[in-house]
Amino acid sequence: xxxxxxxxxxxxxxxxxxxxxxxxxxxxxxxxxxxxxxxxxxxxxxxxxxxxxxxxxxxxxxxxxxxxxxxxxxxxxxxxxxxxxxxxxxxxxxxxxxxxxxxxxxxxxxxxxxxxxxxxxxxxxxxxxxxxxxxxxxxxxxxxxxxxxxxxxxxxxxxxxxxxxxxxxxxxxxxxxxxxxxxxxxxxxxxxxxxxxxxxxxxxxxxxxxxxxxxxxxxxxxxxxxxxxxxxxxxxxxxxxxxxxxxxxxxxxxxxxxxxxxxxxxxxxxxxxxxxxxxxxxxxxxxxxxxxxxxxxxxxxxxxxxxxxxxxxxxxxxxxxxxxxxxxxxxxxxxxxxxxxxxxxxxxxxxxxxxxxxxxxxxxxxxxxxxxxxxxxxxxxxxxxxxxxxxxxxxxxxxxxxxxxxxxxxxxxxxxxxxxxxxxxxxxxxxxxxxxxxxxxxxxxxxxxxxxxxxxxxxxxxxxxxxxxxxxxxxxxxxxxxxxxxxxxxxxxxxxxxxxxxxxxxxxxxxxxxxxxxxxxxxxxxxxxxxxxxxxxxxxxxxxxxxxxxxxxxxxxxxxxxxxxxxxxxxxxxxxxxxxxxxxxxxxxxxxxxxxxxxxxxxxxxxxxxxxxxxxxxxxxxxxxxxxxxxxxxxxxxxxxxxxxxxxxxxxxxxxxxxxxxxxxxxxxxxxxxxxxxxxxxxxxxxxxxxxxxxxxxxxxxxxxxxxxxxxxxxxxxxxxxxxxxxxxxxxxxxxxxxxxxxxxxxxxxxxxxxxxxxxxxxxxxxxxxxxxxxxxxxxxxxxxxxxxxxxxxxxxxxxxxxxxxxxxxxxxxxxxxxxxxxxxxxxxxxxxxxxxxxxxxxxxxxxxxxxxxxxxxxxxxxxxxxxxxxxxxxxxxxxxxxxxxxxxxxxxxxxxxxxxxxxxxxxxxxxxxxxxxxxxxxxxxxxxxxxxxxxxxxxxxxxxxxxxxxxxxxxxxxxxxxxxxxxxxxxxxxxxxxxxxxxxxxxxxxxxxxxxxxxxxxxxxxxxxxxxxxxxxxxxxxxxxxxxxxxxxxxxxxxxxxxxxxxxxxxxxxxxxxxxxxxxxxxxxxxxxxxxxxxxxxxxxxxxxxxxxxxxxxxxxxxxxxxxxxxxxxxxxxxxxxxxxxxxxxxxxxxxxxxx
Length: 1141
What we know:
By secondary structure, the protein is mainly α.
């Protein structure tokens, strides 16, 4: 029972094979038409392959050599007639051979059969040597062929095959040809699967053969075939999987053949020999498979291997990490296993291993690393040191390359080399000195070859920044500095690599020494060399402080010499930075990168000292702030970041608080520069920004600065741009000064604000009318009494009142003319009265604060520069007048003389050729009108008659023309309102007659329905007040309003329209605050009649003076609501017409 049980699975499997093998045998043996039966044969072969592989997967112990012979029987007949069958049949046959060898014959495969199958597979894949191929072999067939060859070599072992001398020659030929076909598949094919299967086949060859002499026979061809896909330019086309497999197989081949343990005897012979062999002793008989291994052979082979490795090791720059890892394993393995046999390759292997050093592999306890080998073989340390020195000295040359990847690899190599040297405790002064010089020269080359960044940073000028939250925001996140060198996006990785190198190069002591050496170059160099030394010294010191910060938290190392040298080097660096900031110039010839690094050094010093840095602000705060006015955007950005860092480090909530708290330092610095006329546009902008941030509380302390500004204006008044920058400072002084809550000393008798606004007269009521009548009666009675008592007197013979300052003469006159005592008493009374008035006036002359005096002085100065040829300066000064006038108005004794002073130059600016200046003049005159009130009444009246009214009419006409024709290009007449449409002013009928045309024949006895009731002035002559009815035709010729007119391309945004809008604002201010006579009022009403309905301000101002005239003007345009006519006994009023317009 026990003997039959094991045969049951085998018998069952045999029963599965018979239905396939029997018909397959019949077809293979008896079929005469092979092509006709090929399809059936192919189906049986696929079925047979499926049955065999399925059994191998489920229970391979059932399979043995007997079953393999049974299955192989029909295969032999197919192989004999292989040329008559299609390629697919041959492919299926080869696909079956591999499982038969692997699971059937295994090691019991007959030697002769193995030789025959090797020949068959070699010819099927590569063809018969020296004969053309009969047909193309598909890739699938080649892949299956390589798998079958690998299975045969792995199962039988070539060493076993060669053991029989009777078959040695045939085995040599078969194996040689098979390996040749395999190598061709590796080197000549570009198909991924073919190359991978060929490599697996070659791996099987060198794994299964244990005879080193046999492997040496195939070593040259194998290395050559493996080197081909690993060398340029094919390595760029070869896939990473193939490269990794090639490197692994090459590693296996070299270690299996040239390992020190196998070459020990030859190496000993080489060491003991007095003279080397002449050459490798290789037998010339091709039938001999073994090579005689001699010292000469080893030397020649090592030389050839070095050449091959020099080509293969170029893969160390490959982008694939798997390829680099495989190459690293190759280098480390050869340095370990072939340390003596490949001693000539040590330098290239060490260099490649250093370049491919992986931190994870260094920390691994399983894999051997270069660091481990250096500890085992001390000679490797010299190679490591030599390689690192070559890298360091060659770095500046590589920095000239146009490829960023080359630069990055060179920097990364030095970083890995320095870390390895530090781990191996390789301390060399030569390396340290060469490293500092190389870094400096490399940075110089990088700066010279770098292209400026094309990215434009939108950083506004200082005037905009002073109100920007990026500068004065509370508790904001501080933006980092933009790179000073290598600032383009394409050089970002290179910049990061070199920063990493500087951070990790050597210990903190070595970094401090390198920084001190760079400081020695710093003061003696200039240009790019100075920038490179400066930047490198700063980065090295930053790295040293970063390394020591962790230790400082646990230990106090300030007393150590290393810490002292570190502090001394940084103090020298900071002193140089402070001198760079102090000598800042606005010249574009200076390299901005030097100043940017100085700003970074200052911020870093503040971050280290924290609040202890505040005393240093005396020297650096003002220079840092001046960079906000730089013309270089990068410097402005650095200045913003530096101020933010200074404020944060010194404990201020914001940059505004920083500047306000240190305003005295900055004022002193600015005043000193102004006094020495060391003035730059940046300094004036800094002063403007500082005044804006500090507000009114700084104004009283700017006496010296303003005085120096006035002196500069006197000395440089011929430079319009500079004068404009100085006046921008004064304008900011005025802007902040008017915000002061105390321009005058407190006094209840003087109002803090003036109000000259004209208001509508209120209703008197019955009591008021009666009181007015009584006052008129009293005046009439008093006038009559004075007329009766009036006695004609002679003209006076002397001036009234005594002469001032001549009391002696007055006493003498009293003695000579005692009868004039009464007159003297009267004169004395007059004198006393005048004295009291003068005292009252003096009482109003209150003491003024420094801010008030300063603003008065600035306003007085504007008159001299309002005629400047620079339009922007003229506009700035007019805006200054608009700003300062309301603040100075409360003290009329001081303000009105100033108004009288600047009036002539201000009024002429209305005729300025620049429209924006004319608009600024309108605003300035409006502000003066609101502040001075009736003081300007006579001046406006005079100017109105001298052409001011014509200027308003011209501005109105140009605006109307621009609206009609798109800026003056339209045709047609300009509808200027004439005598037919004049406003109804305080002259009553005279104004109405100019506005409304009398209809002929309409003055009949009866009132016309179109007539209106007009008060007649006849009563003024006759003494009888009567109401006469005049029939007038209301046929207004008012042009349409601007809202309904056909606007041009720009409409209200044309210059003419904007000038007219400003002029309307000035007219509104004149009517609101200044007393105007009737004629001037009528003309103003006529000018603005078109905008009365839309402009509430001008309408309300005119209504406050004469509401009836305004109503009549609106009625003439049809813009008033209809009202029923009043009913009064004895009087008939005209009825309003609906839609009179």
